[in-house]
Amino acid sequence: MTSIYFSHQSFFEHNTGLGHPEGAERLRSIDHALSQPGFADLKRREAPRGTREQIRLIHTNRHIDYVLGAVPRQGFAYLDVDTVVSPGSGEAALHAVGAVCAAADAIFAEEAENAFCAVRPPGHHAEPDAAMGFCLFNNVAIAAEYARKRRGIERVAIVDFDVHHGNGTQRAFEANQDVLYASTHQSPWYPGTGAAEETGVGNIINVPLPAGSGSKEFRLALAEKILPVLDRFSPELVLISAGFDAHRDDPLADLNLVEDDYAWVTLELAALAKKHAGGRLISVLEGGYNPEALGKSVAAHVRALMES
User: Fold this and answer.
1) Tens digits of residue pLDDT in 200-251
2) Residue 285: beta bridge partners?
3) pTM higher than 0.90, yes or no?
């Protein structure tokens, strides 16, 4: 299967400060992992700069103005206790949006069947009118609406296996029956949302996992509670909020996944995409804060995309 890897130099210029877990070393580990000989056939694209029109598919004008206006000329500014912006953050956020929209264009133009967007800052905590949890704009939600509004499809499925619940993505689509959002995440944990009872209009599937859960619990949650619903939903595009912070070596949570779990879930989702969506699948980086574990996990994920 043909796969495209989207990245951009601006993602390295989003400086979150010394000691912040969401730092540029995350992308350096990914670049190193995907530079190995086994990834020679991976197409590589530079992410274009996203537009305000694209961001407005999900976010309010007020939010866009607030985020871009908060970017300082020097030093740091805090949008909340965890969410930091610095002089390079605005361009990084715009190119992250551009990456996911360009990925959608490439997939629908049949230049590839799937894509992995290694973007910073991440996005799934960003609500239509609020930045939080390291996230400025909700990249995966924007990709979903971009595909629906610009590429002429209706049904999009978003699967989020980040260790933290994607409250922003859920909020964006909880009243939209044409977008299915399914999440596995540690609970109780940040941001405090994602209870199983949160079902939207029947389009939200939350499978909270207790601390200490590992491969068995994760795969069972997908196999029994998420994959059958996705199959019935018959999405025309599959999107992944690909957070790798449920890895057993990640410092920000207490789940115990390993690289093979990410390969497994990727192959399962790619099979569903092939069955219902002509193989169309876009994966967007979210969390993952142990650089070594992140690089290995992304390598397993992208290798599965290439081999699916």
Assistant:
1) 999 999 999 999 999 999 999 999 999 999 999 999 999 999 999 999 999 9
2) 242
3) yes
Closest by Cα among 127, 138, 125, 119 to 54: 138
- Residue 301 annotated as catalytic: no
Q: Are 195 and 206 in contact (CB under 8 A)?
A: yes
Q: Which of 8, 125, 164, 301 is catalytic?
A: 125
Q: What is the rounded CA–CA span in Å between residue 308 and residue 302? A: 10
Backbone torsions φ then ψ of 131, nearest 5 degrees: -95, 140
Beta strands in 234-289 (DSSP E): 237-242, 281-285
243-264: average pLDDT: 98
pLDDT interval class at 157 (50, 70, 90): very high
Mark 143-171 as b/e (b = at least 16 C-beta within 10 Å): bbbbbbeebebebbbbbbbbbbbbbbbbb
